[in-house]
Specification:
Blueprint lengths: L5 E8 L6 E7 L8 E6 L4 E9 L2
Antiparallel strand pairs: 1-2, 1-4, 3-4
Length: 55
């Protein structure tokens, strides 16, 4: 069987509110950590979200 190419990741808010998004990424094409600007509904602003592991 083929090995799974996509890995589940958690995008954690850098504002410290504890809010996160879950998504997948192709670990072969993007081996480095993702940093995206997304909306944080807790503080109602767009902030940076850093990649973290799903436990």
């Amino acid at each position: 069987m083929a090995k799974k190419n996509r890995e589940k990741i958690k995008m954690i808010s850098s504002s410290g509110t504890g809010h996160y998004y879950t998504t997948t990424k192709n670990k072969r094409n993007t081996p480095d950590k993702l940093v995206l600007k997304k909306y944080d509904p807790t503080i109602r602003k767009h902030v940076l979200y850093n990649e973290g592991k799903i436990k």
